[in-house]
Amino acid sequence: GEEKCAPLPALRPFSVQKVFVRELFPEADAFLKSGPGQIVVKGIFRMLLRRIAYGVENKKLGTFSLDHCYYNAVLGGSFLLAQQRERIAKGWSNPFFVIENEGMSTSAMVFHSVEEKEEKHIDVLLYDAEGRLAASFSPFARLGGNQTKMIRIRELLKEKNIATPFIGHAEILYHKDALVLRYPKDLDLYVEYNSGGRLANIIFGAGAWNPPQAVNNRSYRSGCRVVCDDVHTTHLAISNCSYDYDYRLNVDFKLNLLVGGQMLESKVMSIGPNATIFKSIEEIFPNAKKQLETENGIGLVTTTDINCTCLTHLFFTEDRRSKAVSVEHSLDV
Questions:
Q1: Residue-wise burial string across 58-73, b where 16 or more C-beta atoms lie within 10 A, e elsewhere
Q2: Which tens digits make up the pLDDT trace of 62-110?
Q3: What is the CA radius of gyration of the chain?
Q4: How far, in Å, CA of 165 to CA of 167, rounded?
Q5: How distant is the alpha carbon of residue 12 from its chain centre?
Q6: Strand arrangement, sheet containing 116-128
Q7: Global confidence as pTM
Q8: Which of 42, 211, 291, 297 lies 20 to 30 A from 174 at CA?
Q9: Separation between Cα atoms, residue 239 and residue 129, nearest integer Å
Q10: Residue 34 burial class via C-beta count within 10 angstroms: exposed 0-12, middle 13-18, buried 19 and up
């Protein structure tokens, strides 16, 4: 929860400023004790700067990963009332894809989007690819103020004697005292996929995942760019999640492959409760590489959840030679 401050130069209109943490805070290593920390950029710019990006550089490998940041939430801004909280058993949560094998490992850092003194009780749930609850850690930790907590999935698997390779999804839950009248959404998550020192990172905000009113919402549609050529391919990670501990809904959904705005192919798939599917675009659409040739290997995959809005989607783009990956979540389309 301790902090150090440093000023930044003024930002001119339409300009970009690149800042290295090590140059801004030369003592950062000692201050962080070689552990994780959090950077907060403060200023009167909410309506001016729509995005602040952060990147992680590996100087030995010459690799670089990039993602956007979230705005700090306003204290007491987005919240649930106590009665609403009771309806979502898991509370605010952050489900994310997990992969642990010889080539890749998964870590997550929990951090606050509000500098709040009140401690939060953190739970961690791990589900395997078939949807079985492989491990539960409750309570896992307590966080207060602007503290951060790194969660290394491989260490949790070892603690529970769960063998690798392991594919599934994890959920980070946080709970306040049941008597708290306002239950704010102010705990966020940074997930890191490490393949031999090459990082792919993505940021998530907490939410009431697949809340009761979302069930049977047939209009939901999301999508993301995919690449499939001689150099790259894309993998889709899809998990079926819910706010409910006793979740039992099988979900049918449709994947659509589009090129140049034209629908080329569709495939209906099914996924069980809490289960995860991890497949390459070529496993789903065997002719994808040929179909995307007219657009230099680039297309769009959209997902229509046929019976509810409970699927998480991550898209991994892999370099076939180096096995380095980048990751992005889907967007509503």
A1: eeeeebebebebeebb
A2: 666 766 666 555 555 556 666 666 677 787 778 999 999 999 999 998 8
A3: 20
A4: 7
A5: 32
A6: 93-100, 166-175, 116-128, 133-145
A7: 0.85
A8: 42
A9: 8
A10: exposed
